[in-house]
Amino acid sequence: MDGRLTVVTSTNMSENSITQAREAGVVIESDAVGAYYKRVMDVDWNSGLAPADVAERLAAMKEKLTRVDEPTIELHPADLRMT
């Protein structure tokens, strides 16, 4: 990051987002905006997981998610009308 040019986009880092979805973004040329997003990126980067810890964390998340009961929502056909 150069702290001057900033790209703000709706793109997610997934195959669908990159290859199938319509995404939007802007390039902002501003030292003030660039400095802000550089600080945000530095915090995110420095607080992320070490690559060696990813597999263990994913396994722990999978274990927790398999124990969550999904709520059931009953809909009446009238709830599906478009207005």
Number of domains: 1
The order of strands across the largest sheet is: 1-2
For the sheet with most strands, the description reads: 2 strands, antiparallel
Encode the helix/strand succession as letters: EHEHH
Task: Tell me, rounded to a whole number, the average pLDDT.
Answer: 80
Structure description:
The chain has 83 residues and is of the alpha+beta class. It has one domain. Helices cover 41% and strands 12% of the residues. It is built from three helices and two strands; from the N terminus they run βαβαα. The protein has helices at residues 15-19, 31-46, 54-66, and strands at residues 5-9, 25-29. Strands 1-2 form a two-stranded antiparallel ribbon.
How are the elements arranged and paired?
Layout: E1 5-9, H1 15-19, E2 25-29, H2 31-46, H3 54-66
Antiparallel strand pairs: 1-2
